[in-house]
Specification:
The complex is a heterotrimer.
Chain A (H helix, E strand, L loop, with lengths): L1 H28 L23 H12 L16 H8 L9 H4 L2 H9 L1 H4 L22 H14 L6 H8 L22 H8 L9 H4 L1 H10 L1 H4 L12 H15 L3 H31 L3
Helix pairs in contact in A: 2-7, 5-7, 8-13
Chain B lengths: L1 H32 L4 H5 L3 E4 L9 E5 L2 E7 L11 E3 L2 E7 L10 E3 L2 E3 L6 E3 L4 E3 L11 E4 L2 E4 L4 H11 L1
Antiparallel strand pairs in B: 1-11, 2-3, 3-5, 4-5, 6-7, 7-8, 8-9, 10-11
Chain C lengths: L9 H9 L1 H10 L2 E3 L8 H20 L9 H12 L3 H29 L7 H23 L4 H13 L7 H9 L6 H31 L13 H9 L8 E3 H26 L29 H9 L9 H14 L4 H4 L12 H22 L5 H31 L3
Antiparallel strand pairs in C: 1-2
Helix pairs in contact in C: 1-2, 3-5, 3-11, 4-5, 5-6, 5-11, 6-7, 6-9, 12-13, 12-15, 12-16, 15-16
Classes of the chains: A mainly alpha, B alpha+beta, C mainly alpha.
């Protein structure tokens, strides 16, 4: 009986210390932020306009393919990665999947004013311009048509890796995804992207571990929420696409998760059996001495 | 009889002394094995061009693995004994490590603020608030025209260091 | 050479040459431990087990770890965690054990303080134990540097910087410890040497010393009663086991240890598989960057109380700089436990619940250490800084008044 009281005291003090040092302290260091807004309610988007993909095709072909490839429609890259990085600061993404990856209102807002929609206007000051020109001078219907076209040509299904490659890899490397051949470096060479962004965008190999699910959800959806003044643009991913990105980060950063979750219960069951036998043996020895 | 005892003691003590000298010499040798390598001592020179700096916003460069803050001062920032004067420009040159416990303070508009324990340093690198016990340290440097070489102790460095000691 | 006759078994053969039967009696079956003990007495074996886990998991980690600033992070987080079969398990076991060992050390230490197991006759047990705490702390600190993450680098930066506070030779001392002007490759490799060789070997030696210091004074018991071990041993050997106040180390004492160990390992492996962030801090999954300080730097939880004493003094007092006061307080906090046997001026050996003033002192100390620990983790701004200041000051006062507290108990009891 007394031993149980002592155990209760030890457990209580341990739990109080644990609570203070972990959940409590971390809540102080990382104050709660608002949930992710997958509707992008604050952007000047489509405003309900319905787009015509046929009309959109002509507009996209005429206005976008000078810088952006659309490999699925036969528009290859105009320059290789190194050259386009030198020219623009960052390699322009292929538009073949943009219609699936990005929220439609966000896309519309982005086409009209890239720096504003992606929340990086604060970086383009003193005569520095965003490498992509804005198309705010177009009619709202034309913008909606281009978005509709991009949505029509986008694949219905994409693997997690494909989503990452299209949405993130032009700036971020994730070397653990291919340490042997090194194919998962950022598309933009380091010097260019460092110049363009102000500092080198971090390698994301261990970001699932260093940031965790919850933080990544709100951060990718709106970087400024966690890091005010950051150079990372708001990318405009839909919830599904963002979930795929985070799942990919987990696949690359925490490869042992499945094995760990499978082996854990087995170890614990074994230890319970071990403890039962240990107690039985202890009781047999102490029966003689009490 | 007492002579024999003394001789035995004397031999014992002298032997102990010889062993101790050997031990001490070994320790000195071992201590020196932990000293920074010649390549580390020699590699500590970095050239920086100050002429192209924009007034009011500091630039950070790396010297000997440490961040070095270089700030071209604006007119509002006034004059200070620590200033490095090159022509009509005044510069603050400082090792960018908080003098409290070594974190890197961040530039916030018109001063450096250290996130670790709230220490603050003004544009002259002087400690103005919080636990830091002294201003940001001065790295050795020599001046050649409008550029400086970090690591060499030039006359300008010695003069500023002397005013900081006072 | 002694005369040897033909042995009838392997056991007898070994006994003729090594006297194994006597050794077995002395170390095991006739090594007498008090019977009046509770599960807290098992912490020693828990520590030995956890230390063994650290050694073995450490051996496996060493086979793949690369002590080079360019290779260390990936050797841990890619090679060991993702490629080596069960590499992730060894790393998790090592990291969690390194953290949990300090929980058990603190329980073990405070059990000793509560029951007066540091007093008359047992000072060497206490001192060797405190030396173990210090060497384990050094091992924890040096080990944490090895993955070369952001926390590894900046903790090394802050702690090596402290030596700059030493008068006259401070700055040169910092450079000498680091082997470079900054925390760099030379620092990593020498701390690797300390962590995998010098410290473990030293710890093993001090453990042997700690076990030896227990033999003559004997292990303490729940009522801190002093009795004649030889008399009680004779009762036991005569068959009077129920009346005897002692039990043999093997098999009786060990059987209780193993039962407690069984429960402990359930808790330990639960942490290893399902709840390990407290031991493997997320910040350390960012590779070290000497040009970027993380927004929040903090040591591992077991150093927090001491860290808070260091930074608790955040303003100058009576001409003394805050930094210097903090450094002296820090040195005091880490050394004062060593002299606990001499600060306690009560001649009687009793558990705390039989020493009224000491009982209060003990629980105030526990509360203060928890406050220091929690506030050592929080950002030291506003109210937090003041709580830290008062908690740190209280800690120092507690030890300064201990002689008075213990004399009060002794006088009231009539022992003085």
């Amino acid at each position: 009986m007394r031993e149980l009281k002592i155990l209760a005291v030890v457990v209580a003090l341990t739990l109080i210390t644990y609570w203070g040092v972990e959940p409590f302290a971390h809540s102080q260091m990382h104050p709660h932020v608002a949930d992710a807004d997958y509707k992008f309610a604050d952007v000047d988007g489509l405003n309900g306009t319905k787009g015509d993909p046929v009309a959109g095709e002509a507009l996209v072909t005429a206005n976008c393919t000078a810088c952006h490839s659309i490999k699925s429609k036969g528009f290859p890259e105009v320059m290789d990665n190194a050259s386009s990085a030198a020219a623009y600061g960052v390699t322009p993404p292929d538009l073949g999947s943009a219609g699936k990856l990005y929220n439609a209102d966000y896309l519309a807002a982005f086409i009209k004013d890239p720096a504003k929609a992606s929340d990086v206007s604060h970086k383009f000051v003193d005569g520095r311009a965003h490498p992509m020109p804005g198309y705010g001078w177009m009619q709202p219907q034309e913008i909606a048509d281009m978005v509709a076209y991009l949505q029509s040509i986008a694949p219905k299904e994409m693997s997690n890796k494909e989503v990452f490659t299209d949405a993130c890899q032009r700036c971020h490397s994730i070397k653990y995804a291919d340490m042997q051949k090194g194919t998962m470096a950022a598309f933009t060479p380091n010097d260019n992207i460092k110049d363009y962004m102000g500092k080198l965008p971090p390698d994301l190999s261990q970001y699932i571990k260093s940031r965790g699910h919850e933080y990544l959800e709100t951060f990718i959806n709106n970087p400024q929420k966690h890091l005010e003044g950051t150079a990372m643009p708001r990318v405009g991913l839909t919830k599904d696409s963002q979930d795929q990105v985070i799942t990919y980060l987990e696949e690359v950063g925490d490869t042992s998760k499945a094995q760990r979750e499978e082996l854990g219960p087995k170890f614990l069951i074994y230890m319970v059996i071990f403890a039962i036998f240990a107690f039985l043996w202890k009781n047999s020895k102490w029966r003689e001495v009490h | 009889m007492s002579n024999e005892t003394n001789r035995r003691d004397f031999l014992g003590y002298s032997f102990a002394a010889v062993a101790a000298v050997g031990g001490a010499a070994s320790l000195v040798g071992m201590k020196r094995a932990w000293d920074p390598l010649p390549s580390v001592l020699a590699g500590g020179f970095t050239d920086v061009e100050l002429g192209s700096l924009k007034a009011g916003t500091p630039v950070t460069v790396s010297w000997r693995g440490k961040p070095i803050f270089l700030l071209k001062k604006t007119a509002e920032m006034g004059e200070a004994p620590r200033d490095l004067v090159i022509g009509s420009d005044r510069f603050t040159v400082a090792i960018g490590l908080c003098t409290h416990l070594g974190c890197i303070p961040a530039w916030k508009k018109d001063m450096w603020k250290c996130a670790c324990h709230g220490g603050e340093f003004n544009a002259n690198a002087k400690n103005t608030f919080g636990p830091p016990p002294r201003p940001l340290d001065l790295p050795p440097f020599s001046v050649k025209g409008t550029s400086i070489t970090l690591g060499e102790e030039g006359p300008e460095y010695k003069k500023i260091a002397a005013t900081m000691m006072a | 050479m002694a005369k040897f006759e033909k042995a009838n078994s392997v056991g007898e053969w070994l006994d003729q040459r090594l006297n194994t039967t006597t050794f077995n009696k002395v170390m095991m079956t006739e090594y007498w431990i008090p019977k009046d003990i509770n599960f807290l007495w098992a912490m020693g074996v828990l520590l030995a087990t956890t230390f063994t886990i650290l050694i073995i998991s450490g051996i496996f980690l060493m086979m793949y770890y690369k002590p080079d600033i360019n290779l260390a992070f990936d050797s841990v987080n890619y090679t060991i965690m993702q490629e080596v079969a069960f590499g992730w398990l060894f790393r998790h076991m090592h990291g969690v054990a390194a953290s949990v060992v300090f929980l058990v050390i603190y329980i073990h230490m405070f059990t000793g303080i509560y029951y007066g197991s540091y007093k008359q006759g047992r000072e060497m047990i206490w001192i060797s134990g405190m030396l173990l705490f210090m060497t384990f702390s050094a091992a924890g600190f040096s080990g944490y540097m090895l993955p070369w993450g952001q926390m590894s680098y900046w903790a090394a930066m802050v702690i090596t910087n402290l030596f700059g506070g030493v008068p006259v030779i401070g700055d040169a001392l910092v450079v000498w410890i680091r082997g470079d002007f900054n925390v760099a490759d030379a620092t990593l490799t020498r701390f690797f040497m300390l962590h995998v060789f010098l410290l473990p070997v030293t710890i093993m030696g001090i453990i042997a010393l700690h076990f030896y210091t227990l033999r003559i004074p004997h292990v303490n018991n729940q009522s801190s009663e002093e009795f004649d071990f030889d008399e009680e041993a004779e009762k036991y050997l005569a068959g009077n086991k129920k009346e005897s106040k002692v039990i043999p180390f093997w098999p009786v004492f060990i059987s209780k240890d193993l039962a407690v160990l069984g429960i402990f390992l359930i808790f330990y492996f639960y942490l290893v598989f399902f709840h390990y962030n407290f031991a493997m801090d997320p910040v350390n999954f960012d590779p070290a960057d000497n040009m970027v300080t993380p927004a929040h730097i903090y040591p591992e939880w077991y150093f927090l109380w001491s860290y808070e004493v260091l930074r608790g003094f955040f303003f100058d007092i009576a001409g003394f700089k805050a930094f210097d006061i903090g450094l002296i307080a820090f040195a005091f906090a880490n050394g004062i436990f060593l002299v606990l046997p001499w600060l306690d001026r009560d001649p009687a050996i009793l558990p705390a619940h039989k020493r009224p003033a000491f009982f209060i002192w003990f629980w105030v100390l526990m509360a203060d250490l928890i406050v220091l620990t929690v506030y050592g983790k929080l950002p030291p701004t506003g109210v937090n800084a003041w709580v830290g200041f008062f908690a740190a000051t209280l800690f120092i006062i507690l030890f300064l008044v201990l002689p008075i507290i213990t004399k009060i108990d002794a006088k009231r009891r009539g022992s003085l």
